[in-house]
Amino acid sequence: MSHSMQPPHGAAPQHGAYTPPPQHMRNGLGTAALVLGIIGAITGWIPFIFFLGGGLGLLALILGLVGRGRGKRGEASNKGVATAGAVLGLVAMVAATVGMIASFKAVDDGLKEFDKATSNTGTKAPTTDTGTGTDDTSKNKSKKKSKAKAGSGGGAGSDVLAAGETTTYKDDLKITVSAAKKFSPSEYAIGHTVGNKAYQVTVTVENGGDKKFESTLLTADARAGDEGVTAEQIFDDKVGAGFTGTILPGKKATVQYAFDAPAAAKTLTLEVSPGFLHDPVLWELAL
């Protein structure tokens, strides 16, 4: 008589051997390290954004080392990717150092070039060049007067020139201002006040250097009398347009300016500024 085998009372039924569920791989840090390392290695070489590459490189190094540790413990399956990310992080940091040095050198070279450019545009000693055919005695007196002025102040900004005198910059740009003469504005003129007097001056710019001169930035401003009242510039059909365009080497350009001054003013102080790289120069004109 056969009997079926029954498990003992209270015993759990028997099944196959227990298989634990597969472990989830934590590969995110290794992948992130590789991506950041690549971006950092590229941007680290570029001047002026080297800091971005350096920051990404440091982050890639940290994430790569942590991801590599996970790979050793069996928590991640991309140990090689994490290692590559860490190595690229180091490369990015080295590249950022090179980029930083290149950026600082570029800035330093730029400042040196700017200083060189500005140092070459200071004025030489002013000279008298009225074009009136004065005799040798008058020329000698003018030269002595010019030398005295040059020695007393040392260039533009400290000397005040007289009508007809020429100032020459170190790049051989020459500016001459004529004597002031009375001017009659038209009824459509702008800048003239009834009761005041108008005066016209001629400004001549000669480019004696070997480079083009952009005259558009040249400005002329005036003050009248001992009180230094602002002399408004007059815009009329014949005056007030100012300099425009380029003056080629060896060429000249002449422009007429007119200014409005109080009737009692005896002098007109004209300040001519050729541009950002040239010092302004003053002329005092008798009215």
Describe this protein's structure.
This protein is of the alpha+beta class and 287 residues long. It contains four helices and 13 strands. The strands form two sheets. Strands 1, 2, 3, 4, 5, 6, 8, 9, 11, 12 and 13 form an eleven-stranded mixed beta sheet that branches. A hairpin with a 4-residue loop joins strand 8 and strand 9 (229-233). The relative contact order is 0.11. Residues 128-158 have low confidence and may be disordered.
What Rg is obtained from the alpha carbons, in whole angstroms? 40 Å
Low-confidence parts, pLDDT < 50 over ≥5 residues?
128-158
Report the order of strands and helices.
HHHEHEEEEEEEEEEEE
Distance from first to last alpha carbon? 148 Å
Q: What structural class results from the helix and strand content?
A: alpha+beta
Q: Number of helical runs?
A: 4
- Portion in helices: 25-40%
Number of strands: 13
Shape: rod-shaped
Mean pLDDT: 81
Beta-strand fraction estimate: 15-25%
Keywords:
alpha+beta; 13 strands; 4 helices; 287 residues; 11-stranded mixed beta sheet
Give a quick summary of the entry.
With about 290 residues, the chain is an alpha+beta fold.
Topology:
Elements: H1 28-43, H2 50-72, H3 79-119, E1 127-128, H4 136-153, E2 160-162, E3 165-168, E4 173-177, E5 181-182, E6 197-207, E7 213-214, E8 219-224, E9 229-233, E10 246-247, E11 252-261, E12 267-273, E13 281-286
Parallel strand pairs: 2-13
Antiparallel strand pairs: 1-3, 3-4, 4-6, 5-6, 6-11, 7-10, 8-9, 8-12, 9-11, 12-13
